[in-house]
Amino acid sequence: MTNLVTAIALLHKAFQQQTVTELQLQQVGTSLWPICRPLLLASHTPMQRIICLNTQAYPNLYWESLWHPVLHFLAKHPDYTFYHQWVNTQISSKQPFPLRILLFTIQSEKELQTTLEIETEQQVLYTVLQPFIQQGLVTLQMPDDGRFSTFTQLLEQAWHLVILSGHAVLSEQADIHFLFETTEGQTTVIPTTQLMRYLQNARIECLVLAVCHSAQLAADLHPYIPHVVGMRDKVLDRASHVFIQHFCQHLLQQQRVDIAVQQARIAMTQLLAPEETWSNAQLKTIVDPSQGQWSLPTLYSQNPLRTLTATVSATDLTPVQATPPPFLIGQRLVLRQLMTLLQQTKAMVWLTGEAGTGKTTIARRICWQLQQQGYDIFYSFDALPLTSTRPYLLYLEVITTETLPNIQQCLVNLNGACLFVSRQFFDSELPMVKYALPAPHFTDFLRYSRYLKLPHTQVQLRLIYHLFKGNFTVVQLFQNLPFTTDKALFHQQLAIAKRFLRGKMGE
């Protein structure tokens, strides 16, 4: 047992440093095999190869590294499934279709060192789910809001699947603390005990904690939620995305939760596309940090045969038109503030910003989010209904001094919300909230540059950011200019960008 404790301590350290090897996992897994024999709850059969352990007495061991003398790593064997259980229920789900899914992402705009690629995560998940959304099989909410208060409000609803994606930190006493956003876009720490209180009373069929060190919380929630997945140690952003993508794909193919988890683990053994390499923030190639990531997802299930939804006839489903959300990196604080303003009674908001600052994408993202909440979106006065029982938003994109007087007359009797978008404010007698779009945070500017695969150094990108006040159009221009480390040539390119932007502003 002493050797196992030492091996686990070394494995934990390797996960923190992203230097895990398959040999380390095998050594730990081999030591776990004799311990696990008395804990086996389900024997495998030719038709149903399920391996279930009652690990309540040993919750913090790296069980997913379990090494069988013949089958090797059981948690990624294609013919078996692997999960934990010490609470059993035979009750079937009573929640009907459509499958209600919540992806709740947490990202402070002020934390450069802990940035998650949450936009990519949202985009990947929506791509996976879009065909099922169109069939009426799935509804998806992905709020641009990582506040704890928003999360607890959403937990008042019933969900088939909740995915919580964000950060957690280990204290010196090995306690887990989850990081949420504040109203100002800062980070606030929520103790596990506080999060636990809300989750154990929530109506959730399956919970995925795509958060580092969340396996212990998953174990604590096992008696309260039919299926819970947590991460045993520090998980890579890409690994988390791949797990969520493949887990949801298999669930929507009507596969059991334990099968979906097993197949998602297998997918995590290959995190890069053939043409990709691992690189750091400066796009320099680094050693593969992904070894062993497949062993982190840990499933606690009361009954893997329990489906997430009650049975339903195809005639009960209503097909819908599903359009993907506009892709936007960052500006979550802006999105949250504008959403709050527009959800007030008869709200009128005027959003302004220079060309290339992302105001149109932000406005369209807000329209998409409001649609997911049941709003109708109209793009002209002619399209407005005479009466409406649903909330609606009037979105006007082209506002000029010539058109404003007519718009003012039409808005007097408007019963819904209204969003104006233009480059600058004009005088208006209407009680409108004027919102000048601030420059994006450098973190978001940097992430957008990396998303476009700009090879520029961080010093060059910071210079571009400050010189052009975070204008995203300039980033797209540099995408078409040859990369150079020559100082004189780079300053020539900056001059070209200045002329280009002046031309855009004059359009």
TrEMBL record:
InterPro entries: CHAT_dom, P-loop_NTPase
Species assigned in the record: Beggiatoa leptomitoformis
Source domain of life: Bacteria
SUPFAM superfamilies named in the record: P-loop containing nucleoside triphosphate hydrolases (SSF52540)
Protein name as it appears in the record: CHAT domain-containing protein
CHAT domain residues: 43-274
Top-level taxonomy: Bacteria, Pseudomonadati, Pseudomonadota, Gammaproteobacteria, Thiotrichales
